[in-house]
Specification:
Number of helices: 4
Strand order of the largest sheet: 4-3-2-1-10-11
Strand content: 25-35%
Radius of gyration: 14 Å
Structural class: alpha/beta
Length: about 160
């Protein structure tokens, strides 16, 4: 299974649509949005594929509307953090602005921990956990998303043109 990962869309609707299209072209079967969604239009743009969402620090004013739209479009809202089991892999997801969420998820030792918040793409192993940040679609030196092949354990960052 290929997992499309995006974060920090900050209501950049056109860029998000292009990112989702690129992830679909790359074979993504499921999306994970790691927070800072901002507006319901972003949820609609991501709903072309099954999508899991966590909220970020910039989503706090709009949680009710975002959650309603996520549910109405068939997505899954994990609130501020959560864990999934996909294709035999445990995947922790949080935005990253609550250090306790990161610590708690790391302590649970999932196969992957997906985060956002820093607006900087990275891929690192911390013990047995592979920690991935896809980058951002707003306020970043380069806009990026990522696609993770859960079977092959291969990660590819995809650039989104300005």
């Amino acid at each position: 299974m290929k997992l499309g990962i995006l974060s920090d869309t900050h209501n950049q609707l056109d860029r998000t649509r292009r990112a989702v299209a690129l992830l679909r072209e790359a074979g993504a079967e499921v999306l994970v949005h790691c927070g800072d969604i901002i507006d319901i239009e972003i949820v609609t743009a991501c709903s072309l594929l099954p999508c899991y969402y966590v909220f970020g620090n910039n989503d706090s004013y709009n949680v009710t509307d975002l959650r309603t739209t996520i549910e109405e479009t068939g997505g899954t809202c994990l609130m501020w953090s959560g864990e999934l089991n996909l294709d035999g892999k445990r995947i922790g997801i949080t935005h990253g602005h609550f250090p306790t969420d990161v610590r708690n998820l790391m302590a649970a030792a999932p196969d992957y921990l997906l985060t956002g918040h820093s607006h900087s793409a990275h891929d690192e192993r911390v013990g047995s956990v592979r920690r991935i940040n896809p980058g951002a679609l707003h306020r970043a030196a380069a806009f990026s998303v990522a696609i993770l092949d859960l079977v092959a354990d291969e990660l590819t960052f995809l650039s989104i043109p300005r």
